Amino acid sequence: MPEMKPNLTANMNTNLAKVKPANILVFDKEISSVPDIVKLTVGEPDFNVPDVAKQAAINAINNNDSHYAPGAGSVALRQAISHFMQDRYDLTYDPETEITVTIGATEAIFASLFTLLNPGDEVLIPTPTFPLYATMVEMLGGKAITVPTAAPNFALSPAQLKAAINAHPTAKAIVLNYPSNPTGVTYSSDELADLADILAQTNLVVISDEIYSELVYTGRHVSIAKFLPGQTIILNGASKAGAMTGYRIGFIAGPAGLMQRIGVAHSIMITSPSDPAMAAAVPIFGSEAGRQATLEMKAAYQERRDYLTSRLTKLGFTVATPTGAFYLFVKLPADQGTDDVAFATRLAKEGQVATIPGSFFGAGGEGYLRLSYATSMENLQLAIQRITNFLNH
Which residues form a coiled coil (predicted)? Predict the structure, then answer.
């Protein structure tokens, strides 16, 4: 095996040194060796890809759909996404100039930030939230400015937004993620309108990660782009709505002026997405069969959410109001202290239930756990039984 010449370390991008191993992955790996552990850690649907999507991929392969696609994604998929945005959220995006298909939502985040940031630029990020946003900002030489939100619902308030803008008047962008990973909380139409009124007075680009938009349990998902179309970039994809995490199909939608620049960065990074994967995503976004498959999954998630919420509340946990996604963010019982890492470690090793410490998701998450209910009801019932035994031990 070759060993790198030691002096080559000095040749590397110094911003990469800021990127530390993700706490979530490190912790998950550490506790995965516990025998017979029930894992409520991974944010990945436990359902199979809908048959309509599988067949579309098979057809694409059999029809030799194996050549370079347009950099922005296949025309068929961009048209399906355009239909999806109009049908579900009453938003109009031109498939030719305002939609780009990405390699999952992860590339969508990176391409958006890469397009916007110069060294030293600031990005406002309400927390608790998915830690990858801050990691990418730092890796690109920017500064992640966390804006801690308040329990019990962890939603950014107008007052908090105004304070953050006043303290960082030259910030380039703000990242919103709703329904939220890790809290499962989303915003109402009125709440988004209030935030949009403030943001409209700035030049902040709103990077709105709405990957869980199809998993809203009360009412309908509303995008902040409804109120602020000229300065909002929407990130979404097929991973959660279609249980297609391995197909790696995401998308970005926004005004043409922003999307033209994002498209340049995107095309240099990846050339174009995979043809069969894009073909599989077309019916997820553009057909009634795809919509029904998502609704069936959502109904199962809602049943699991209600079960977990009820049982954990009875055990003394305080649950943030989970209105979307497939996570619960729960505060430790009063007699268990506030050290979420220590509690989660003991629960895994002694109680055989794996969760993620809330502090891994940034300021405000201390003393909480994130539980994913993207697993079977049988696993959830076993987890509750084990948590009960652990607390009573």
Answer: none
